[in-house]
Amino acid sequence: MSVSEDQVAEAMYAMIKEYHGKRNLKALDLSKAMIEKFGEEECDKKFCKKAIRQLIDSGRCTYSYVGGSYIVLPPDSPDAR
Amino acid sequence: MVEKLRDTPKIDELMKGPWPSFVKEIKLSAKLSGRAGERANDLLGVLERSYNDKIGHWKHGGIVGVMGYGGGVIGRYNDLPEEFPKVAHFHTVRVNQPSGWFYKTDVLRKICDLWEKHGSGVTNMHGSTGDIILLGCATEDLEPVFADLTEMGFDLGGSGSDVRTPSACCGMARCEWACYDTMGACHDITQTFQDELHRPAFPYKYKFKFAGCPNDCVASVARSDMSIIGTWRDDIQMDAAAVSEYAQSGKFDMQADVVGRCPTGCMSWDGQKLAIDNRNCVKCMHCINAMPKALAPGRDRGATVLLGSKAPIVGGALLSSVMVPFLKMEPPYEDLKELAEAIWDLWGEHGKNRERVGEFIQRIGMSNFLEQIGLDPIPEMVIQPRTNPYIFFETEEEE
Amino acid sequence: MAVDMKKRVTDIGPPHYDKFLPPVIKKNYGKWKYHEIVKPGVLMHVAESGDKLYSVRAATPRLASIESIRMFCDIADEFCDGHLRYTSRNNVEFLITDESKIDPCVARLKKEGYPVGGMGPSITNIVHTQGWVHCHSAATDASGVVKSLMDELFPYFEEMNLPAKLRIAFACCLNMCGAVHCSDIALLGVHRRIPEIQHDQIKAQCEIPSTVAACPTGAIRTATVDGKQSVEVIEEQCMFCANCYTVCPAMTLNDPEMDGLSIWVGGKVSNARHEPMFSKLAIPYIPNEPPRWPTAVKAVKNIVETYAKNARKFERVGEWIERIGWPQFFDLTGIEFTKYHIDDFTHAGESFKRSAQLRHK
């Protein structure tokens, strides 16, 4: 595979940042977008899962609950303003 | 220690009467020293306020949890934080219970100590899904609580759009009717799907409940997306002498109360001998329930797997329906896991936000669903075939 | 918050149950032969080996102080070598192997104020939700109504003289965090006022499109209020389910005068005799009457007593009503049948009577 986990995580992060304050994204919204962007061969569901975990474990993103679970920027993130 | 408990004349009315009082329980915790007592005392105050106002005073949602997990903590805030500052943040911590809810006192005491140190001293034993509920954690205490819990060998349960904490009846630990090892299966499934339990990635929640027999003591058919209900395929085991004892005991009328209540009429009683046409037995458990000493489930045991039950929100309440009529339930439960994963794959990709599996099946159609997850349609799945002629025929024949 | 992710332990799951099982269970796991209710609240399981295990069942209010859990631990240490378990209906069970310890254990529990019973043809503990104690969407309290009910139904917990077991459940809103939809008697909190929209907060707290999409009847549409983006609710289409409120906290429904509870009957989850059934509406609305909810308590007691008097042995509430017919149920209980009893949601037609098989007075 030529696409790295970091690359996928960065692309996910960019998407979360872009939609911040407009639309909450679920784990699946991110995975679907990445599979479309990089192609199933390069980036499958399992790979997306790893990238999401990287974003969450590093603290760059966090889970939020609004009648469903979403992945968002933490309130103190510089990109959240 | 709280110097004086909050004045609560309204809810004090619920201290009276023979049934154990939850108000007494909150007061017991309000008398604890330290923050736990202060929090429980403010909880008393909020509750008294609700009893006067006739509305609740809690707000929900938001970003709250332990690092890395999306499930296990439910955000709860009071809407009167100035009046009740100690419960301004009063989150729910769901702790995954051991299968079957068996405990040794040493571990329960440790949980109590933890919750005196970091929490409110108020719990639910247990929550509706089965978790140990620690009620009322401040945001800054979440990480310390989690660290202490994992140190003791416990972990958080599910919440939000994830696998919710699976639960099981006591099964083989204390029941002769258990048709498979419910506690073993529950523990295995819980451990296998830790990632799915802690990191929400589904359209909505997904519950497993493991019931050892068709009596369904964990209400799996009504309360779990995947209901695994123990059953058997061969003949009911019978001890004829014990049947006679029951017949003579005067506890019930064998003809009217046992034979007459068999849903398929597959039993007969001639005053001496009980005969069962086992081919027509639907494993309802009635006769076995009535005579536990005389009758028992057969020896070829396993489970029926049903899918899709839920409470009303959003599209109306559903009971689970049959997917697999009989499945041998042996570790490592590969068939069950594969089925669950195939369902998650499909529902995960096409399910709408807050759409449970049961609702998803109704929207896309059961036959379509079966085809996608690779199950063959069989008559056990329906009460009857369709009565309307609006069939979506596939017009293009495959080669 | 600074958290050292490397040192953290995660995803260990619950401890293995094996650690908590008493020796008699470990020895006889999967080898139990039969069981008997020795007396109300005391169950005896006999293993193929001949070993006996007694379980003493006591009610808890579900909401438990760590102080009373510690007290249960003291009791379990004294009588059960430190072994106890909880049931799916919030009862606690003390696991005893020494027969001589049963009566002292029962006596001790009763002395501490925790009644022993809830077995066989009885009313066991009510499964319930958080209510005003800790829930955002509660249309009524849960623990308080349950306490008031069980104070009145108490003899049915300690005795075993009903036709069959009778399961009561309580949920404080339509989310139903409890098997309310399949219980012999169910109490369900209901809202009856359309959401009050906090127009100044909605943009900050909620996502407008998902709020609109949350409504199962399509009663919510986008609107501009005072120049700000918000939503409006079409009153005639709202059925007060509160799904929008869960998705959007700025759509509050709680109302002191309009909220209350409803009563449902005839559901079951077990497969014994009749297949599992949903609970059906008996009483559409009873106002909230804290602290003791007298009207609700009286209504439930009436249903229990009518059932106890009229049902046959082994007949659950739903089976009894199915045999006698719904018109007779309303007749016998004196409950009024109203337009609200007739379904008008998605699968409404399924509950219409489509035959001439009727009893006539």
What labels would you give this structure?
heterotrimer; B: 399 residues; four-stranded antiparallel beta sheet; 16 strands; globular; C: 361 residues; alpha+beta; five-stranded antiparallel beta sheet; four-stranded mixed beta sheet; 10 helices
State the gist of this model:
The complex is a heterotrimer of chains A (81), B (399) and C (361). Chain B has helices at residues 9-12, 22-30, 34-53, 105-118, 142-151, 171-174, 182-192, 194-198, 220-223, 240-249, 254-258, 286-290, 334-350, 357-364, 366-373; strands spanning 58-60, 73-74, 76-78, 91-95, 102-104, 122-125, 132-137, 167-168, 208-211, 226-232, 237-238, 267-269, 274-276, 295-296, 301-307, 321-327.
Structural topology:
The complex is a heterotrimer of chains A (81), B (399) and C (361).
Chain A: H1 5-19, H2 27-38, H3 45-57, E1 62-65, E2 69-72
Helix pairs in contact in A: 1-2, 1-3, 2-3
Chain B: H1 9-12, H2 22-30, H3 34-53, E1 58-60, E2 73-74, E3 76-78, E4 91-95, E5 102-104, H4 105-118, E6 122-125, E7 132-137, H5 142-151, E8 167-168, H6 171-174, H7 182-192, H8 194-198, E9 208-211, H9 220-223, E10 226-232, E11 237-238, H10 240-249, H11 254-258, E12 267-269, E13 274-276, H12 286-290, E14 295-296, E15 301-307, E16 321-327, H13 334-350, H14 357-364, H15 366-373
Parallel strand pairs in B: 8-9, 9-10
Antiparallel strand pairs in B: 1-3, 2-4, 4-7, 6-7, 10-15, 11-14, 12-13, 15-16
Helix pairs in contact in B: 2-3, 3-4, 4-5
Chain C: H1 23-28, E1 32-39, E2 42-47, E3 52-59, E4 63-65, H2 66-79, E5 83-86, E6 91-96, H3 102-111, H4 143-158, E7 168-171, E8 185-190, E9 196-197, H5 202-205, H6 208-213, E10 220-225, E11 228-233, H7 243-247, E12 251-252, E13 260-265, E14 280-287, H8 294-310, H9 317-324, H10 326-333
Parallel strand pairs in C: 7-8
Antiparallel strand pairs in C: 1-2, 2-3, 3-6, 5-6, 8-13, 9-12, 10-11, 13-14
